[in-house]
């Protein structure tokens, strides 16, 4: 058994990266992290996003456009492509909840254009 996770918007490329993360919200189930590197939100074109989808037992499809079972983390700046890669992490924040890391392959740091960055995202 399984289920399908559908992208929220055209061309955001949801599913470019997918990972299972240790329980992030404390409900006893692991979460799925879905990278969408070409997502554009908050006026930041192609900043990218990672969707954290809460674990579920049913096999019905899930639509990221109406995500009620999780939340979205957006890239920091325009054209960062956050979510190009994602990976679940064990608890690194000491809160007994899982965390994840997301790559932004085009992130620019000061005088290093498109040098890329990795962001560790702790449970909210």
Describe the overall structure.
The chain is an all-beta fold. It has one domain (5-121). Helix content is 0%, strand content 35%. The chain has strands at residues 5-6, 17-21, 31-36, 49-53, 62-63, 70-74, 82-89, 99-104, 117-121. Strands 2-3-4-6 form a 4-stranded antiparallel β-sheet, with no helix packed on it. The radius of gyration is 14 Å and the shape is globular. The model has no long low-confidence stretch (mean pLDDT 94).
List the uncertain runs.
Answer: none
Provide the number of structural domains: 1
The main sheet comes to: 4 strands, antiparallel
Shape: globular
Alpha plus pi helix count? 0
Helical content stands at: under 10%
N-to-C SSE string, H for helix and E for strand? EEEEEEEEE
Q: Which radius of gyration do the C-alpha atoms yield?
A: 14 Å
Mean residue pLDDT: 94
Based on secondary structure, the structural category is: mainly beta
Task: Please state how the strands of the largest beta sheet are arranged side by side.
Answer: 2-3-4-6
Give a quick precis of the structure.
This protein has 124 residues and is an all-beta fold.
């Amino acid at each position: 058994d399984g289920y399908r996770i559908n992208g929220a918007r055209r061309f955001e490329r949801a599913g470019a990266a997918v990972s299972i993360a240790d329980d992030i919200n404390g409900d006893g189930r692991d979460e799925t992290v879905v990278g969408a590197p070409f997502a554009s939100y908050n006026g930041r074109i192609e900043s990218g996003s990672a969707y954290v989808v809460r674990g579920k037992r049913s096999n019905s499809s899930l639509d990221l456009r109406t995500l009620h079972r999780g939340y979205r983390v957006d890239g920091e700046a325009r054209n960062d492509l956050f979510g190009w890669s994602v990976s679940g992490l064990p608890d690194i924040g000491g809160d007994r909840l899982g965390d994840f890391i997301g790559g932004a392959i085009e992130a620019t740091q000061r005088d290093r254009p498109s040098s890329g960055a990795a962001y560790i995202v702790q449970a909210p």
